[in-house]
Design a protein that fits this description.
The structure is a homodimer. By secondary structure, the first copy, chain A, is mostly helical. In chain A, 65% of the residues lie in helices and 3% in strands. Chain A starts with 5 loop residues before the first helix and ends with a helix. The A-B interface holds A 15-16, 19-20, 22-23, 26-27, 30, 34-39, 41-43, 45-46, 48-50, 52-53, 225-230, 242-245, 283 and B 15-16, 19-20, 22-23, 26-27, 30, 34-39, 41-43, 45-46, 48-50, 52-53, 225-230, 242-245, 283.
């Protein structure tokens, strides 16, 4: 057997890293779904130990040497292997950019801020969190400076790059500007159009068992592999696990069966992505590091473009009747659709509808940039938040829980994360336009519960590329257009001002 | 802050190891309880990666250096810390005794033999497994030789030491001889006494939900911490997890609610042990490495001495009625007890009763020693097994599945494991005698479902010592007698020839 090449040794190292990260992912899934309430301390130690191991793999001098040697011999590699080396390099660069002391201080500050976030919510008072959040902001600012220097980027762009590789804030702002220009009118128009047509409420309570059975039938129709995956319940929907063992969760609201179903659809979009990556890439960075914007795009495509469409509602209505045993005027196609497309100026992001959702992201993006640049002090954040909501929605939150304390992201140090939601919306809409062009009978298929055409298109055009392209690169190749907000604006205009 | 001492650095390393092993334990629990059927390949990779990390911690030159330095400065340590250093040294010695190439070959041979064990059972033919088992036996023989040389022990004793620290085969054989001397008569006597008094069968089918509720009520009464532990169902009962997050499983037989309950009791014995170790030892070897014989002893004490007693049956009968909704002549105290104490010469270990169980261990011990010494060839194992059963029970198994293929232990390389079951029985009985002397009203308490006296006694006399003593050392200290079979023989004689 000839000695392994540097590239082969790298694959081996990243295979090991993949296995360790898979273990980490299972620990997180278990913590949210199965773990006894009192065991968080023990789990925290296990997760920290595994994260340290993972970091050590990426930061090891041996890995850096192997990367140098592999890059010097790139001509011997196949195209996907070259992409793989780039993805490896990216992980290594992000890992070693921060000094270990800063990693440790940030981890400690985040643990403190996270627990104070819960406490502040309990007391309904942002001031409980403010000093700890201030510490997090300062350390994230350091982190951004280190990352930016190392990756030769603007500091904020370096944070964004960690979540959405290949997308910079300038591109995101172009998108934001285009949406801002049209959105106020679209929201006004939709609310006006829906005035006087309040949907009838769904009456009754629906057990998790029945709701789960409905979700399972829908997910099976979409090709979710239950022999290599699970659906469970947790506080908020999420996807964990690895290709080959995907763990999807959703949250069942006893009064609203669509909330759990659409959560499950959202996560199924990501799960199918995970399962659809070429088998030989599955444990390599080129198969995994696609970034949150792309993942969000595929999730939203199932939840929004598919799940909140007349064709989908026509298909699931009999399934809803069967599993939940409901019937009557609230359960017609029209009334269900009216519920799913209801536009309201909610002050809480996770309750927001598709059309007003971008407003929540705009507010957060603006505030987090101000915080990081130092233009806004943490002590003034709650008031700045309330003013921003007043300016956009004409109302101030009743208290901090409905305001600045509604999201945990900043407390846990996730700055540069919020843009991925909005990038995801634009990606979903732009892919959807191409998908509809390529699959002319799509609505009729969905109406019959047939998703093989849709999933095949995604497999071929998106899943199969893994992380070999950035999100904008993939969009350019698949849709032959740069990533913009145009498709999303066309999509919501049609959906909210014409169809309904 | 002064620099950490070598001992403190060791504690830190073992704390990390404890966290990694806790993660491993959760992966195993999940594989048996939650994992989708198709995901075993992925899980295997994750477990292998973590086991490699754990081995690397123990085998690192730095750890050996720290151990040397800590031992050179033992006078500065507290008693439990000195015990901790010994337990650390033991783990390190076991870890580095085998050359890495042998570890890898054994892991591969075991993986192969394990899958062929399933295939051989499917085909009902030991010959399917024999060549792979032969390879495992050869490698285990190498392993024993390496371990023995390194630990300065007889090779088989070194294997036994891995499972039952501080117990050698000579001690085990003394126990075995004493039991062999009396057991045939005891079995004959018990079967004769029970002749013509066949218990009435339990009729009905009992859902896992109802059986689980019964188990939970019983476990709560015994102090199982459900805020830091779970009870789930799996193919065979087991305990995984760590102190602070204990995962107990049992198996619910729809036709026999006592099988699941006694399985849960058995595992609760170990879970309470895990939870009862002093808090500051929990993530250290002195708190964890008590060996399987002691663990089995505490499990059997709850399952056998407590769970199959008239007092316990008197307490749970109304709970059984409540949770399972049963009543009638099969559900009297007497009939339940008759079922729980029924003695029969079963050819299958896991179906065996308390009294005939040792026979199964004797047969396996004898055969595994012959295999390892080379006196018995693997190709002749099935026939040797059948002859041994004929000699002990007067019957040959109908096929290999009921014979040599019934246990997976040897296929997965677990030689030296079977003795721990019998050691556990003797430990349980010997502790039980002392416990009854120290707690005079024990039967009355159990009859009322009060276990605090019993659990406190175990806490103080056993749990609190962790692994600071070996099993024989602990028995000597707690019962003021060496570990022998005498207490067990007295116990079964009274139970099967006098009480019933």
């Amino acid at each position: 057997m000839p000695a392994a090449t540097p590239y082969q040794q790298l694959e081996q190292e990243f295979r090991r890293l993949h296995a360790l990260r898979g273990a980490l992912s299972l620990l997180r899934w278990d913590a949210a779904v199965m773990m006894p309430r009192g065991s968080a301390d023990v789990r925290g130690e296990q997760i920290a130990a595994l994260e340290t191991e993972c970091h050590a793999v990426l930061a090891s001098p041996r890995l850096s040497r192997l990367l140098e040697r592999a890059r010097a011999n790139e001509q011997g590699l196949e195209g996907w292997q070259r992409s793989n080396v780039r993805a490896m390099q990216r992980q290594r660069d992000h890992a070693i950019a921060m000094p270990p002391s800063l990693i440790a201080r940030l981890a400690k500050a985040v643990a403190r801020a996270e627990s104070l976030w819960f406490e502040a919510r309990r007391q309904g008072d942002f001031r409980v969190l403010a000093p700890a959040l201030d510490e997090v902001v300062k350390l994230v600012r350091d982190r951004a400076a280190h990352l930016g220097r190392h990756l030769q980027m603007d500091p904020y762009d370096a944070l964004l790059d960690a979540f959405a590789p290949g997308i910079q804030s300038a591109e995101f702002e172009t998108l934001l500007t285009a949406i801002s220009w049209r959105l106020p009118q679209l929201i006004d128009g939709a609310i006006e159009r829906q005035a006087g047509r309040a949907p009838q409420p769904f009456e009754g309570r629906f057990t998790a068992t029945r709701q789960r059975a409905l979700c399972v039938e829908v997910m099976k129709a979409m090709g979710f592999p239950f022999d290599r995956g699970r659906l469970d319940e947790s506080e908020r929907p999420f996807t964990e696990g690895v290709p080959g063992d995907i763990r999807v969760t959703t949250h069942f609201d006893p009064a609203d069966p669509f909330s759990g179903l659409l959560g499950a659809l959202h996560e199924t979009g990501q799960a199918l992505y995970d399962q659809g990556v070429p088998a030989q890439w599955r444990d390599q960075p080129v198969g995994r590091d696609r970034g949150l914007a792309l993942e969000e795009g595929l999730s939203l495509l199932l939840e929004m473009q598919v799940g909140r469409s007349p064709a989908f509602v026509a298909w699931i209505r009999p399934l809803v009747e069967k599993h939940l045993g409901v019937t009557g005027p609230a359960w017609t196609d029209d009334n269900i659709l009216l519920r799913l497309l209801r536009v309201r100026r909610s002050l809480v992001r996770v309750d927001a509808d598709e059309l007003t959702y971008p407003v929540h992201i705009m507010v957060r993006y603006d505030l987090e940039r101000q915080l990081l640049s130092g233009r806004l002090r943490v002590v003034d954040l709650a008031e700045a938040w309330n003013e921003a909501m007043q300016a956009r929605f004409g109302r101030r939150p009743d208290d901090d829980v409905q305001g600045v304390l509604q999201d945990m992201h900043w407390a846990v140090g996730s700055f540069g994360y919020f843009p991925t939601y909005l990038l995801g919306s634009s990606i979903a809409a732009q892919l959807w336009e191409s998908l509809r062009e390529d699959c002319p009978g799509l609505d009729e298929s969905i109406r019959r519960g047939e998703f093989s055409g849709l999933v095949s298109w995604l497999r071929e055009n998106v899943h199969a590329r893994g992380a070999s392209l950035t999100a904008p690169g993939l969009l350019q190749e698949v849709t032959r257009k740069p990533l913009t907000a145009a498709a999303w604006l066309r999509y919501v205009e049609r959906k909210y001002l014409e169809t309904l």
